[in-house]
TrEMBL record:
TM ranges: none
Family: Belongs to the pancreatic ribonuclease family.
Domain Ribonuclease A-domain span(s) in chain numbering: 29-146
Signal peptide feature range: 1-24
GO-annotated molecular function: nucleic acid binding; RNA nuclease activity
Main location: secreted
Protein name: Ribonuclease-like
GO CC annotation: extracellular region
PANTHER family: ANGIOGENIN-RELATED (PTHR11437:SF10), RIBONUCLEASE (PTHR11437)
Gene3D superfamilies: Ribonuclease A-like domain
Amino acid sequence: MLLVLKKWGCVMFFLLMAPCMIASQTFFANPRHKKFLREHQDFPQTKVVGQNYCMAMMQQRGMSRPCKTTNSFVHAPHNQLKDICTWAGTHYRRALRLSKSVFSVTTCNLQGMSQGQCRYSSQTGQRQILINCDSSGWPVHFEESNFM
């Protein structure tokens, strides 16, 4: 009897852990989602000392060769961004999802180049965001817009 209970315990453990393992594999195997996080998530917000936030972040995240014209960083945890793909967002248009909540967002705009380096201005504010999610429910695109 004890052996049967141990067997069922192992089976139940596996059944409970399987969805977590599949979700984590999907997360790590999804290059579009990883790119989305690299380009658009900064949580907690990186503290930049003695340098413009956008210039530092665009360089650090590999978006300054060539200079990317506009990019936004959302200062929110990963799970809050993913939830926009389901219950925390609403259909907006096409395949876009509009967040129900506002987020702290820093938008970086290219001002030009100086001495071979991209020069960015930054604007931080609270706003709803628009994202596109893949068929598995992972954020894969941030819609750069003036939507506030």
